[in-house]
Each structure stands twice: as structure tokens, then as C-alpha cells.
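Thread: Modeling a multi-component assembly for a lab meeting

Hi all, long-time lurker, first post. My supervisor asked me to bring a structural picture of a complex we are working on to next week's group meeting, and I have zero experience with this. I have the sequence lines for every component (448 residues in total). Could someone generate the structure of the whole assembly? Inputs are pasted exactly as I received them:
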Amino acid sequence: MTKKYHIHTFGCQMNVHDSEKVAGILSEAGYGQADSMNDADVIVLNTCSIRDKAEQKFYSELGRLVTVKKDNPNLKIAVAGCIAQQRGEGLFKRFPYVDIIFGPDNINNFQTWIMNGKQDIGQVTKKAALDFNPEYHLKHLPVKRAGKLKAWVSIMYGCDNFCAYCVVPFTRGRERSRSGKDIFNEISALAGQGFREVTLLGQNVNSYGRNLPENMDFPDLLKMIHDIEGLKRIRFVTSHPRDLSEKLISTMKDLPKLCRHIHLPVQSGSDRILNLMNRGYCLEEYKYKTDMLKSAMPDIAITTDIITGFPGETEEDHQCTISTLADIGYDGIFAFKYSRRPGTKALDLPDHVDEKIKARRLSEILTIQEGITYSKNRLLEGKVFDVLVEGVSETDCDKLTGRTGSNKIVNFYGSQNDIGRSLDVKISEAKLHSLVGEKVGNMSCNYL
Ligand code: SAH
Ligand code: SF4
Ligand code: F3S
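Re: Modeling a multi-component assembly
Sure thing. I ran the full set together rather than chain by chain. Output:
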């Protein structure tokens, strides 16, 4: 009987893509996807440790697996990802029913174990792979992708920025870029298989190429992949504001496949806090760069990440962040309460902010941003956008759903044949989290 796997992913897009690699390895070894945890032979929890809440979610999920393992003693439980890297073999002691631990830089080790175990995870016991792997960017791992239209592509691994609050440099190791040729080949193959959109992944894509022997930076990479036939859209995350160059802005402007959206995490609107965070830019520089983006591409959508209640943040600093929201006019934000993370510099900073104050500041920021997001969406009413149709809407099965280049969700009536195509859609109504549209040239509703 075919053995089965179940993967539960926590955290960011990078982790989602890593899970596609774990699924690729297991599929290649002959495993099928389990319908639920209860009929799996191996369960992989791909974890995130960016904030304490993410870590606690993993512990409660792991706790639930005790009974699953009791019912099926042959079940193998693997812990992967950023918590695996950070907590290491201590997890075996705390959770004796865990069998396998591997960090984000060691997915290839998991592949080796499976293959050495004669394609049977049953042979693998108490294995841990946690050493950073300076050659990881050279590995070619199989990938089982979740979609058929949009694909994630890793262009670099690790992070060297050491922002004072962040665990990522400790969980994903030093920054390494994949060769342009490898990336080009992967995306060409995807386009050949019918994928229309790629999102290039890196913690700081703007520093792509720093370690490469060839003289190539991020805009050069974009120009190279832009020529790939069949590929319609190119996105990337995440841009670090310090490393966002004029060359990147003019390249985005000149290349039509580059989506008119940039995620540019500001974190705080106060220079004092940005300095304590070790972000390497001040608000004036950030504003200068967003102004340049807007004048080069007036239709560009800008989104951001914000942390509230970083150590030492005063009411005045918080007000600076609030005014930044309107100043920049974000299309959307992800905002979080500062969370203390092991091993990070911010732990030692004075004046940690009370949880209640962090929560109140977070809720103020979210409320103000809702108004800004909604009014930005209203400005799109009556305009026509190219929408890449992804499938049937989750909230209304009579409608299709897709995204604009600026990454806004659009729901509209269409036919099954439209799925996978790019269509012109006119926005008829703006909502807070999505837009309602009508297919241009097809005003009589064409129900599914
Ligand atoms: N490399 C990306 C983001 C990685 S983490 C970048 O530099 O922008 C995603 C977001 O999580 C960060 O932008 C930050 O806003 C948030 N984050 C990271 N560590 C955090 C912490 N300790 N507490 C709260 N939010 C945090
Ligand atoms: Fe974390 Fe900063 Fe690196 Fe982003 S750039 S992953 S926030 S250390
Ligand atoms: Fe991503 Fe979480 Fe690790 S955000 S990089 S999975 S800590």
C-alpha cells in the first residue's frame, strides 16, 4: 500500500514553498498525500518562530499529535522549519514522540534520509539535521507545487541584516543567492508547464547577487527572466527599503511583466525606533524612495509591515507611525505587536512596552489603515484592470476570483474557461479586502 504524508505549514511564503519541497521529496520517494493526519505514515510540521504566538500554535498542534501517535505507533513525526532550527534537539527531550528534526537549511538532508532509508521513512529514527549549509543554494530539490498557475521560486536563502527584533538570521543562516542560470532554468520549465506568474522569494531580494561570482544584481535578474516566453507576471518579496535602488525602480518601470506592487516593510515611522531596530534607513529616505516609485509608476500599490510597541517606543513614536500610514498611503499593511524572541538584540533593550499598550497601539493602527485601504480601493471603481483568473471565489461559488497586477483580489462573473487566463475586468464596487468587477466586453452575466 502507498505510504502517505501530511504536512502542516506555519509562517511565511518561504515556509509554504519549503513545504512544497518537502512534499516534492516525499512524492519522489513514492508517498501519496494523506486525506488527514489520521491516515498519514509521516507528519511534517513546518514551523515558524517569528513571534511567540506562531511558536505557541506549533506547540498546541504538536500536543494534539500525542493521541494520533498512540493510535498509530508507526507514525513518524518530523519537525522542520524555524522552530526546529532554533530549539534544536531539545525538542526530542521535551517531546519524546518527535522522530525527526531538520532546519530550513537542511531540507536536502531529509531527502538523503528518505532515500537511504530505502524510500521508507519507517527506518528513520531520532535524526536531526541542524548545521547551516553554505552550499544549500546549489541544491536542486524536487518541488510539488500547490497550484498550476502561480509558483514560488527561491532566489536566495538566509538573511544578514540582523534587525534587532528578528530571529530569521538565526534560523535561516547567512545570505546566499542562487545562480541566475539556475533561477532562469527553473522559471523557463515552469512557464513550459503552463505557470503564468512567479513570485521570487528572498528575505531581502534587493541584495540579490552579493555573493555571486558573476556580476549580477536583482534588476539584472529581473531583466533576464523577463524574456521567458509564456510567463506573464513577475512578483517578488521582500524588499528591504535600505537596499531598494533607483536601478530597480527604473527596471520595474520598463518591464511590463513586473507587477505594479511592492511590499516595502517600514516597521516604524519613528527614526529613533528605526535606529534601535537596526533597519539602516530613516523615514526621509523611505519616503524619498516611495515617492520615486510612485512617480515612476503612478498605479503602483505599496504595502508594508509594522511592529507596534518595540522596546522604548513612546506615544510620540507611535504617532509618527500613524502619520506615516497616511503620508505613504499604503494599499494594505500587516501589523504585529512586538514579540520578544530568543537570541535577538532587542531583548536587552531598556523600556519594554506593556502588552496592553502594544495591543492598543496595534488596534489604533489597524483601524486607521482600514480607512486608508478602503479609500484607496474606492479610487479604483470604474477603472479597468488586467486580472489573472485563479479559480472559483471561495466566498461566492457563482463567481470567479483573480488578482490585479497590484495584487488586489477581484471577484466577478465569468465562465470556467476563463480560469488561467488574463482578462480585462472593470471594477464596479470596492470593498475593504477585495473588489467586485465585471468582465469587459461581456456585460451580460455569464454564469458558471
Ligand atoms: N525579511 C522581511 C520580513 C521577514 S519577517 C523584511 O525584512 O521585511 C515578516 C515581518 O514580521 C517583519 O517585517 C516584521 O514586521 C515582523 N516581525 C519580525 N520579527 C518580529 C517580532 N519579534 N515581533 C513582531 N513582529 C516581528
Ligand atoms: Fe528579519 Fe530584518 Fe532579515 Fe527581514 S531583513 S528577515 S526583518 S533580520
Ligand atoms: Fe518565515 Fe517564520 Fe521562519 S516568518 S523565515 S517561517 S520564522
